[in-house]
Amino acid sequence: MSNALPNEFDYNYYDYPSYSRFEYNSSLSSYDTSWPSLARVVFVILLRIGFVLIHVGSVPVNNVNLILLQNIVDFCWVTIIYVLIGVVIAYTGDARGIIGQGYWIGDASVDKDEVIIGWAAVVIAAAICTCGIVGRTHTVGYLVIGFLLAGLVQPFLIHWIWTPKGWMRANVLHEKNVHFLDYSGSAIVHLVGGLSGLIGCMILGRRILRLDSIDDASIAVGSSATVFAGYLMVFIGLQSLCMPNVHIRKLECKSKARYNVYINNLLAASSCSLLVVAFQFLVPGEEFNHWTVMRCVQATIAGLVIISAGTDIYSPSAAMGLASSGSVIFYLIARQVFGSALEDYCNIVAIHLVCAVLGSFIVPFFNIGNGDDVISILLNFCWQFICLIVVIVFVGIVISLAFVILQLTGLLRNRSEYLNHLRASLAEGRSPQRSTILERLFRIDRNPIYLQPSSTVDDQVTSGSRIGRY
């Protein structure tokens, strides 16, 4: 394949928002082209604020200040690690499609607008992962996981998928050109964040034994409104992943994609949410409470995630159809997780992990160009599937090892989480019914032992320092 830049109407080149569509022209030097990056930064900050509201309104943690502290630490830490280490891996050149050529952020050849795009991806993925471990993990655990995501895992994926010479982005399979499609972070952001959060939940284990055992009286007044506002801010923030890195001349774009990605996002979010609301009315035994209403709001994000792999290539009708079909999967998975002992208060498994895998799996069938035969379509699907498996295995191995090491070194849980986990373990030991870890996490048990997280301090556990508690 030729590596030369195409002309401005060659849309096959414009699959991803992560690299420039046009070469710099000296005539453009007098115009300010930094405002799209500023808009991207503002959107991502709004998204992080939204996730904080979701954490405060959804997660039963005694100390809200701990949530706020760990969120700002995570945001700043991920930013520094990515800029100092991740950029060197992700961008500025290519070495055999695997890694960048090692230019530091201060080098004049580094495209700073491109750096902001990668920064948005790592900060959003870190926020999604945080939803699975917020309030439970020691601050050192946040630092370790953030370092791996922003400094290693995502930079490699960004280079492989979002740069023109990345080995996943373009390759040859049986003498046919194949591509891995991920326009707005289906794999790089949502799958990585959702899978990391799931691994964290599973290794942390139980604190309460079933999420649906929490009654409405235990939910603070105003929590639903807080979470609702948080999800709307997350929806706004996720639009930053769809913003292309284009050069502007007198505030006019030189080119437009085939379809308006923002229209597709709006239609997909609305279709998915309306159908989930309908399911709540139609399915027997489903009553409207805090958790079911929040599921309807979460469906707006789920619809966006489902089409995120190919937002730029879907027609509006295709975006609506895919989101409508995906709403069934989202609803079923969300109900299963809700009835299990997995502490997924923010529903990241159904929203981000499952919907991202589903969207990445089906996108090749919609990326059919003129002259593509059945063999080409099947080969592109096979390549998409192979790369998807590689991403899952890569992320799973690295993050699992990190959480296991944190567990073995005693740096996984903060003090409050240690006490709640200890109580859950003692109660489980007294239970006459024993089961495997996976069964305890995912099996719906209608007669579980129930433990409400408590602020009572256990006399058997002491900590002499503030660092040991947080």
Automatic annotation (TrEMBL):
Q: Which family does it belong to?
A: Belongs to the ammonia transporter channel (TC 1.A.11.2) family.
**Any Pfam family matching the protein:** Ammonium_transp
Keyword Membrane set for record: yes
The family database entries (PANTHER family) matched by this protein are listed as: AMMONIUM TRANSPORTER
The molecule here is called: Ammonium transporter AmtB-like domain-containing protein
Entry keywords, A to Z: Ammonia transport, Membrane, Transmembrane, Transmembrane helix, Transport
Q: Which residues cross the membrane?
A: 37-56, 68-91, 116-135, 142-163, 217-241, 261-283, 313-333, 345-366, 378-406
Signal peptide per UniProt: none
- Compartments (UniProt record): Membrane
Taxonomically, the superkingdom here is Eukaryota
Note the topology in the membrane: Multi-pass membrane protein
Transmembrane helix listed as a keyword: yes
Ammonium transporter AmtB-like domain location: 41-416
